[in-house]
Each structure stands twice: as structure tokens, then as C-alpha cells.
Specification:
With 464 residues, this protein is mainly alpha-helical. It has 17 helices and three strands. The chain has helices at 3-22, 26-43, 48-66, 74-92, 98-121, 124-154, 186-204, 210-230, 233-255, 261-296, 320-331, 344-351, 356-360, 367-400, 405-420, 433-452, 458-461, and strands at 158-161, 170-175, 178-181. A three-stranded antiparallel β-sheet has the order 1-2-3.
Length: 464
């Protein structure tokens, strides 16, 4: 990648970071909409969403051109089959809205091409140049959101905000014991904070200026505080599972084998110690903020008239179990091709206008189930092959101990995504910040494994 292309890609990625994260924060979303409407009113052409899509198309074309000689590789061939499955599903489900399903499937395909290929064709220096700036801007934006949210906690703010594109008010401040803050969704907000903490730990050992290191430490504390106060169970489960895998990996790295008494003892003791530290940190931060909050507002009222019947102590899954079962029942009608990108709820409405899914219009709340719903068994089997192939290549690299810190950061983003998206969606939807990190991490892992394992692409073997 030449210098001009690297700068252009970096600017677009930073723009995406600011735009995508800003749209998760109420005041930023409103500000973006006002600016975008004003610019569009003057130019009648330029609009924020259009800039994102046009930039994505241009970058996709450039990346395909740059990777044309090595594009025919096992991983990219499998992804090509998946995108073909997306388009076949669009044709098979043309009765459920052809244009809507086609546009959404095209966006999913463009996300995969943009971010997976970007990390694949970038050299290590180019990728560090881009990802460092993306992470710094992400921290700036998210720190502001977290600090404002924690201010709402201290002052016991509660209220509602009409976000653009939402047909109902979203909660702000502290509601039902959870810090929604200024974010549109505390689960995704806490998860993004966790992703950024991983990036902060990586950058801390790479940057030189002392003031930058100090800022990164402060930013990490801010992100950790919001995670505690958001009370996002899906994020807590993600943190726990990620730490377990970290300890398993560390046990292997130290003892060079998994199945041995020393390795098991080493792993178990560190898992227990890690859990103890997490619990202690949680309560220290929580009680500290509660203490400050009680000083300012002795009667902390968290009740609200904005009730949700899917959130209660008896409903531990927040109705996820019911949503999953209803979607699985739906998939029995079109098991091979699924319902395309946006056809499932349309089909549910046609099938029974009074059903739970029809009335609530819930998404699948599960990434893996979403693949089945969108592309059927054809897409699921393709993705199993893709992730299975990358997993095997990753294991080979780890066994050879040829990994770098950036490779481990990519593994961190990938593993956290796999766990978190068991309870949520995002990776197989459209442009989101966490989606961007997930596919970039996969792309970097794919290229890194390709180099370290001495593989030759299908194209190379065929003389392409």
C-alpha cells in the first residue's frame, strides 16, 4: 500500500470510527443528523450515510484490485461462497421484499470485503499506522460518552431520548439499577468499552510519549468504570470466558502442554485468582460510585414508568430463550436458504400477524442463529468451514510460538466477538464499530497465519 492510499484509508477508517461510535451516543447522533441535514440541504448530494457507503464501495474496489493476485485463497474462496449464499437467498426469498433484502445483503458483503481484505493486504507498519489512529479516536469519543454517563449516575439523572430511527423513547441515565447513560444500548456500550481496553493495553506498550501513556491509563479506568455500572450480563460473560481462554493459553505457553497436572493446576489457580480480582474490582468501583451518588442524591430513585415486561428477575434471559425458539420454529419453513437479510420478520408477519415476533419485531439476539435465519443451512455450513479453517491455522501458529502482540490483540477481538454475539447481533448485519474490529481482526489473523504457516494460495498453485 503506497503512502497516499494508506492516508486515504486511514482517513476513511477514522471517519467511520467517529460516525459509527457517535451514532451510539444521543447528543452526538443528534448533532450528526443536524450537520448532515444542513450539508445535504446546501449541496443536495453530500450526506453522512452516503459518504460512508460511497467510501466503502471505493475502498472495496481498491482492495480487490490490490489483492487480485492473491485473492484466490482458501479463506477468501469460502467467504465468496458465503456471499453467493446471501445472494441466492435474496433470489429465493424475492416474495419477502427483493430490493430491501438485496441492498442489505450487499452491505453485509461490502463490510466483509472492506474490513477483511483491508487487514489482509496491509503490511504490519501500514496496519499499525491505521489501527493506532482508529483506537485513539475511538477512545476520545467513547471516553466522552462514558464520562457523561457516569455524571448522570452521580446526579441520579433519569429520562428519555428519542434517537433517530427509533420509534420509541430510549432510556437515559440510571434505570432499573443499570447505567444506560447517554448510550442507546448499555450492552453494546459496555462491550465496546471492553474491546477498547484490549486496544489500550496493546497501544500502551507501543507508544513512546509519556502523556499518551497516562491518557491511555485514564481511558482504561474510565472504560472499566462504565462496564461495572452498565450491569451488562452478556459483557460480564464475555469477560469471564475471554479470561478463561487467556489463562488456558498462558498455561500452554508456560507449560507447553494442556493435558498435565502442572498445566491444569497452573490454569485453575490463575482462573480463580482472576475471578477474585474481577469481583473485588467490581465491588470497589461500584461502591465508590454509589457512595458519591448517595452523597449527592440520598434517595436514589431508579423506578421508571418506562416498564419492560421482558426484563425481570424471573426472566433471566430477557426473553432471549423465547426469541430463539420462535426463530428456530420459523426456520423449519425455509431451512436451506433462510429468509435473506431482512425477510424473517416479514415472513413472520405474513404467517401470523399476532405472533410474538410480529408484535415485538425483535432481531435474533444471537449471531449464529442470525446466519441460519439469513442464509439457511447453506450459509451456516459455509461459515463453519471458514471459521474452522482459520481456527486450525491459528492453532498451528500458536503451537509454533510465532505470534506477535498485534496477532494476540486480533485474537482477543475475535474471541470476545464470538462470545458476546451469542447473546447479540452485529457481525452479520451492517456497518458497526465492533463489526469493523471483528472482520479486521479476522483478516489480520488470516494473513498472519498464511505467512507463518508457509501456505501457498490456490491462485499461486494454479499459476494466477
Amino acid at each position: 500500500m503506497n503512502k497516499k492510499a494508506r492516508i486515504a484509508v486511514m482517513i476513511y477508517m477514522v471517519y467511520l470510527t467517529i460516525y459509527l461510535l457517535g451514532n451510539r451516543i444521543g447528543i452526538f447522533m443528534t448533532g450528526f443528523d443536524m450537520i448532515s441535514d444542513w450539508v445535504y440541504g446546501v449541496t443536495h448530494v453530500i450526506e453522512s450515510y452516503r459518504i460512508m457507503m460511497v467510501g466503502g464501495l471505493l475502498m472495496a474496489g481498491y482492495l480487490v484490485f490490490c489483492a487480485r493476485k492473491t485473492l484466490v485463497r482458501m479463506d477468501t474462496v469460502i467467504l465468496g461462497v458465503y456471499m453467493l449464499a446471501l445472494m441466492l437467498s435474496v433470489v429465493a426469498n424475492r416474495d419477502l421484499g427483493f430490493s430491501e433484502n438485496f441492498m442489505e445483503s450487499a452491505k453485509i458483503g461490502m463490510v466483509i470485503v472492506d474490513f477483511y481484505l483491508l487487514a489482509r493486504i496491509c503490511g504490519k507498519k501500514d496496519w499499525y499506522y491505521i489501527i493506532k489512529r482508529v483506537l485513539f479516536w475511538a477512545c476520545y469519543i467513547w471516553d466522552i460518552g462514558c464520562l457523561i454517563s457516569m455524571g448522570m449516575y452521580l446526579f441520579n439523572y433519569k429520562g428519555y431520548y428519542y434517537f433517530s430511527g427509533f420509534n420509541r423513547p430510549s432510556r437515559q441515565g440510571i434505570m432499573s439499577g443499570r447505567l444506560f447513560g447517554i448510550f442507546s444500548d448499555p450492552n453494546y456500550a459496555a462491550f465496546i468499552s471492553f474491546l477498547l481496553i484490549g486496544g489500550i493495553l496493546y497501544l500502551y506498550h507501543r507508544v513512546r510519549p509519556k502523556w499518551l501513556r497516562i491518557y491511555l491509563l485514564i481511558s482504561g479506568v474510565i472504560q472499566a468504570c462504565y462496564i461495572v455500572l452498565a450491569v451488562s450480563r452478556s459483557t460480564y460473560v464475555t469477560i469471564f470466558c475471554t479470561l478463561v481462554l487467556v489463562f488456558v493459553f498462558n498455561a500452554y505457553r508456560m507449560k507447553e502442554k494442556f493435558i498435565s497436572w502442572d498445566a491444569i493446576k497452573y490454569m485453575v489457580t490463575r482462573i480463580l485468582a482472576g475471578i477474585a480480582i474481577l469481583v473485588a474490582t467490581y465491588f470497589v468501583i461500584l461502591f465508590a460510585f454509589q457512595g458519591l451518588g448517595y452523597v449527592i442524591t440520598p434517595n436514589r430513585d431508579v423506578e421508571t414508568e418506562f416498564e419492560r415486561d421482558d426484563v425481570s428477575e424471573d426472566n433471566i434471559s430477557n426473553s432471549r430463550f423465547r426469541i430463539w425458539m420462535d426463530y428456530l420454529e420459523l426456520c423449519k419453513d425455509r431451512p436451506v436458504t433462510g429468509f435473506s437479510a431482512r425477510g424473517a420478520l416479514t415472513y413472520a408477519q405474513k404467517l401470523d400477524a399476532h405472533s410474538y415476533l410480529s408484535n415485538r419485531q425483535y432481531n435474533t439476539h444471537n449471531m449464529y442463529l442470525l446466519v441460519l435465519v439469513q442464509t439457511g443451512l447453506l450459509g451456516v455450513l459455509t461459515m463453519v468451514c471458514f471459521f474452522g479453517y482459520l481456527l486450525w491455522q491459528t492453532i498451528l501458529v500458536l503451537r509454533k510460538k510465532k505470534y506477535t502482540k498485534l496477532f494476540l490483540l486480533s485474537l482477543f477481538w475475535t474471541v470476545t466477538g464470538f462470545v458476546f454475539y451469542f447473546f447479540n447481533v452485529g457481525v452479520f448485519t451492517s456497518y458497526r464499530f465492533e463489526t469493523m474490529l471483528f472482520w479486521c481482526a479476522l483478516g489480520f489473523i488470516g494473513e498472519f497465519c498464511y505467512e507463518k504457516n508457509g501456505k501457498k494460495s490456490i491462485g499461486h498453485r494454479a499459476g494466477v
